[in-house]
Amino acid sequence: MAAAVTRRANALRVEAPDGNTESGRASLAADSPVAKRAVDAKDDVWVAADEGEASGSIAGDGNRTPLFRTFKVKGSILHPYRFMILVRLVAIVAFFAWRVKHKNHDGVWLWATSMVADVWFGFSWLLNQLPKLNPVKRVPDLAALADHSGDANLPGIDIFVTTVDPVDEPLLYTVNTILSILATDYPVDKYACYLSDDGGTLVHYEAMIEVANFAVLWVPFCRKYCVEPRSPENYFGMKTQPYAGSMAGEFMRDHRRVRREYDELKVRVDSLSTTIRQRSDAYNSSTKGDGVRATWMADGTQWPGTWIEQVENHRRGQHAGIVQVKVVSCTFRLV
């Protein structure tokens, strides 16, 4: 079963306190964690790469501001390390040459085995050193990205989240992962999130319905106040929740509402397994069947996927699928 959730919530425009949208956008970008990482990158180890080597500009227009900045390790640190790698490489080659010239004729097979092992470890060491010869760090420039947020050149993105068992992979983790993706600050018509449930369980399907309903509230809240992190569990778990773009009173009012709705969402998600089992028991007791205990959906139809008590055509890897179901502003596709 694969469920696709596509965000369709309208982004809210955030005005700067002084009414200057551009300066407010730059200020928000500068205060964000990603921007802080960009500042931290300019330390005693990392230095900005030459502009000619930057590869973050929009394709086809080299005059536009790059969407990310490239940093390299300082030469005073990198060159001695490269020299040490060269010295070790020469020593390894000399060692192999000595081993070949001084072949042990009394134990040819033992010598050959040790040579193969030495060559393999030497090759593995070389592969491990290659990325360290020229390490780079690329940090997104949020201010430049905001300027190009409506640009048609921004690529479309498909994000796949996989799961199989709501017990081994807690359902609340999956819910928060989907919500954080749906709240991503990216053009809504440019990306989609797909949940692939290999187990085909009803609990994941109904959890995604809850996600779709809560996302209508959570996504505008994240966009309005530039919320980070965008996972509700992590955000509400912080001692202080930073915000931007509005007055404190309005933020606290919206914050209390969203927090209350999220707490109710967690209760509903945690009780889904019990709710589905109780509902199925009620339907099975009221219908005259052949002794097969089916799993029932909320609309009174049998779940075509994996049942709680698995039977033929309703077990993992062997079940029918729902082609498409549309709920509110999100789209689900179950295969």
TrEMBL record:
Instruction: Give the species this sequence originates from.
Output: Triticum turgidum subsp. durum (Durum wheat)
Task: Please give one Gene Ontology molecular function term for this protein.
Answer: cellulose synthase (UDP-forming) activity
Q: Name one GO biological process term.
A: cellulose biosynthetic process
- What Pfam families does the annotation carry? Cellulose_synt
Answer whether the UniProt record assigns the keyword Transmembrane helix to this protein: yes
- Region: Disordered; residue ranges are 1-29
Q: Which domain of life is it from?
A: Eukaryota
Tell me the protein's name.
Cellulose synthase-like protein D3
Q: Where are the transmembrane segments?
A: 81-98, 110-128
**Record keywords:** Cell wall biogenesis/degradation, Glycosyltransferase, Membrane, Transferase, Transmembrane, Transmembrane helix
Which GO cellular component terms are attached?
Answer: endomembrane system; membrane
> For binding UDP-alpha-D-glucose, which residues are annotated in this chain's numbering?
E169, D198
Question: InterPro entries given for it?
Answer: Cellulose_synth
Cellular location of this protein? Endomembrane system
